[in-house]
Design brief:
Layout: H1 4-8, H2 16-25, H3 33-51, E1 57-58, E2 66-67, H4 74-82, H5 84-89, H6 92-99, E3 135-136, H7 140-152, E4 166-169, E5 172-175, H8 176-191, H9 200-213, H10 224-233, E6 237-241, H11 248-262, E7 268-272, H12 275-290, H13 298-302, E8 308-310, H14 311-315, E9 336-339, H15 347-356, E10 362-367, H16 380-385, H17 393-396, H18 400-403, H19 408-417, E11 434-436, H20 446-455, H21 459-464, H22 469-478, E12 498-502, H23 509-524, H24 529-536, E13 539-543, H25 552-563, E14 570-571, E15 574-575, E16 579-582, E17 596-601, E18 607-612, E19 618-622, E20 629-631, E21 634-636, H26 637-640, E22 645-651, H27 658-661, H28 666-673, E23 676-683, H29 686-694, H30 703-714
Helix pairs in contact: 2-3, 3-7, 8-15, 8-30, 9-11, 10-11, 11-12, 20-28, 23-24, 23-25, 28-29
Length: about 725
């Protein structure tokens, strides 16, 4: 029997839960000692992967690769670089370790290096360094053999505790819980992919409504918004995918109208993953609804639901529990569920949504597959939109032939409803439930140009599309915005339309404080709570990290120091003009995690916390009733999802370690930038920016493949 603890001591970056999983399930009597070493490290890596958001361990990614190696300290690295003779004298093992010296690699597996460490832990007798040396995995075939032996040998064992908890399928190792989630979701979606034709009466009503919703003149360029609505009407499951400003809300509102025209008794529910996203969904639907007044019958417009709810409240999911009030035994009372900001839906939440849906109900997911995935495990929206074998989809962009293609039955339906549109290409195996919006509605100009380059992983193209250095200086002096803090000159103005990038070195503490005054002094100059909240939502500072000078905590402290002379009233920890973000759902106060408010006095001078209601008005609560909150001049990019601001200051500090660098990827840059409607100032060194844009956050999953298999089995 191997000494598991000795091996675990050689692994850098693992946590207590990883050690527990490995120690609890590594002992398998049917395995030799050498095989138990492999199995032990597979379990550790599976646990690590799940903590990192992956639903499974993809074996091809670790085959022949060394993981969990402790990085060299900077001083150690310099010492080694200075001593070439010492480097040449190193053992073959240490040279191999240095070449693979990282916790995780984004490069392709080293297929030529299929040998693994002997089944004995490396000690100080064999290696002169005290660094944790990690573990090099064997080749793919050997790993699969060990996994099958570990899982298969105990099926008839009364003391079996391994095979019920782990699953191997098609080169992936799963915890059974997440495997079951994927299979359950895949089966439900596959059951909803069939086409259900509209009734003659329903088709007639929708055709009569269509010219009021869309332009119907014959055009050569495809109108993807019309295509998405037409397709979704005859599908029980759809994904409307698109970047900021591609017309998602425009499309969803028209889908709602078409559904109501078909059947005014449809029970339609709007939902979003967070309180902020729920609020934004309601605001967007209401504001877009008004643009159709006079074009569409008021009775139909007034029948459209506008009040969204959070998914947790909809499902009856309470804090610190995994059980939901609504599930397969007590389904939701609805006919249509539309979920916005679907990129934030994790695997477990998706499974709970699927369970709670009545069999006849339609499910529509709205989101941007290129945004950050859920904080919890899974990348559901990305897997729904992209095939698993589209390894480079992010670099090559969306293929119109794949995502715009339809079956012959669906093409006939679209041609009947939209004879003015070009015919779509045919593909009987197309993912017809995915509707990717490609023609921008409002999101044009420089922000869109830079975002598109980031989306494709093209850092040079993104940098070339920005303002920097001389161009920035010229713009700053010529085109100052009309809204400005009174004590700042035009020359010092950074909040401009367009995208600007400036190096970290240019923004000393003094410069950042001036930027803070430009950003937030208008809040303190406001004449009412409503105006103050509007000024607050005009600009937001975003960063990928919480700690440090360039993290949320350091930046909030810096901004406060820069604007504190503007404070007119204080009460305990609160002060007039203080922006707060709720960090925990609070149903008694009707406040959700992520909602942002402002501290401001009422007409009697008493400080209260003010929050925007769904109808655009404000409501206040006493300071004593404010639930857990954070001051929010700056916020993490993750927390900004579902929000948008006129201007964004995006701070991308140089990662402090190699491990941290692995967490800095293009999804963060893309999501941060696309929170800006008109302008974004990026404070980052070009090397840091380029490295982030070129690094893609890959989450391993088998959901897309599972859906494909379930669809094929159902044909």
């Amino acid at each position: 029997m191997i000494n598991s603890n000795e091996y675990l001591e050689q692994l850098f970056g693992i946590e207590a839960i990883d050690r527990f999983v490995a120690l609890e399930f590594a002992n398998c009597e049917s395995l030799t000692d050498a095989e138990q070493v492999i199995w032990l490290h597979l379990l550790v890596t599976l646990s690590f992967m799940q903590r990192s958001g992956h639903s499974c361990l993809l074996l091809t990614e670790v085959a022949g690769t060394r993981l969990f190696v402790e990085p060299l300290l900077e001083s150690e690295a310099e010492l080694e670089a200075e001593s070439e003779a010492e480097l040449e004298a190193k053992s073959e093992l240490e040279q191999e370790i240095d070449s693979d010296s990282q916790l995780w690699t984004e490069s392709e597996p080293h297929s030529a290096q299929i040998s693994h460490l002997q089944a004995v832990p490396t000690t100080s007798n064999s290696v002169t360094s005290s660094r944790k040396l990690g573990y090099k995995f064997p080749g793919l075939t050997e790993m699969i053999s060990v996994i099958k032996k570990a899982l298969g040998s105990e099926k008839d064992d009364k003391n079996n505790k391994i095979s019920p908890l782990f699953v191997y399928q098609s080169g992936k190792l799963y915890s059974r819980r997440y495997y079951n989630f994927e299979q359950e979701i895949a089966a439900s979606i596959a059951n909803r992919t069939h086409i259900t034709a509209l009734s003659e009466d329903g088709l007639s009503r929708v055709k009569a409504l269509w010219p009021a919703m869309f332009p119907t003149n014959t055009i050569d360029e495809q109108d993807w918004q019309q295509v998405a609505v037409a397709k979704s009407l005859v599908q029980q499951f759809s994904v409307i995918n698109g970047g900021p400003g591609t017309g998602k809300t425009y499309t969803v509102l028209r889908l709602l109208l078409a559904l109501q025209a078909c059947n005014q008794n449809e029970r339609i529910v709007l939902a979003a993953p967070t309180g902020k996203a729920q609020q934004r969904m309601t605001e967007s639907i209401v504001s877009n609804l008004e643009t159709l007044r006079g074009k569409v019958d008021d009775k139909l417009l007034n029948s459209v639901p506008t009040d969204a709810v959070t998914l947790h409240r909809l499902l009856g999911l309470r804090e610190h529990t995994i059980a939901t009030r609504y599930n397969q035994h007590n389904p939701l009372m609805l006919d249509v569920l539309i979920v916005d900001e679907a990129s934030m839906v994790d695997l477990a939440l998706m499974a709970r949504i699927i369970r709670a849906l009545p069999p006849h109900a339609r499910l529509y997911f709205i989101g941007d597959a290129d945004q950050l995935p859920a904080v919890e495990l899974g990348n559901v929206l990305e897997q729904l939109v992209h095939d698993s074998d589209e390894a480079e989809f992010a670099e090559t962009g969306i293929s119109e032939n794949n995502l715009g293609a339809v079956t012959s039955e669906l093409r006939q339906h679209i041609a009947t409803l939209c004879p003015h549109l070009p015919l779509l290409s045919l593909n009987e195996n197309a993912k017809t439930w995915v509707h990717t919006l490609q023609a921008p509605q409002r999101f044009k100009g420089q922000v869109a140009e830079v975002a598109t380059a980031i989306q494709a992983g093209k850092s040079k193209q993104a940098l070339d599309a920005m303002h920097s250095d001389v161009a920035t200086e010229k713009l700053l002096t010529e085109n100052a915005p009309s809204l400005k803090p009174k004590n700042l000159s035009d020359k010092n103005r950074w909040l401009q339309d367009g995208v600007f990038i400036q190096p970290e070195s240019k923004f000393t503490t003094s410069a950042l404080k001036k930027l803070a005054q430009e950003s937030y002094e208008p809040v303190f100059q406001a004449q009412s709570a409503k105006e103050a909240l509007s000024m607050l939502n005009r600009v937001r500072w975003l960063t990928p990290i919480r700690k440090g000078d360039m993290g949320v905590e350091g930046l909030n402290a810096l901004v406060f120091d820069a604007i504190k002379h503007n404070i007119k009233r204080r009460e305990g920890f609160f002060y007039q003009g203080q922006p707060i973000m709720i960090v925990k759902n609070n149903h008694p106060q009707r406040l959700s995690n992520g909602e942002v408010g402002i501290i401001w006095p009422d007409l009697n001078g008493k400080l209260l916390a003010w929050f925007e209601t769904q109808d655009g008005n404000l409501r206040s609560i006493s300071l004593s009733r404010v639930p857990a909150f954070e001051t929010v001049f700056a916020m993490t990019i993750h927390k900004s999802q579902g929000s948008e601001f006129k201007y964004v200051v995006l701070l991308l500090p140089k990662p402090e370690s190699e491990k941290a660098a692995g967490l800095f990827h293009r999804g963060l840059v893309y999501t941060g930038l696309t929170r800006a409607k008109e302008g974004c100032l990026i404070i980052a060194n070009t090397t840091t920016f380029s490295a982030m844009v070129e690094r893609r956050d890959k989450r391993f999953s088998g959901l897309s493949e599972a859906i494909k298999m379930c669809v094929l089995e159902g044909e």
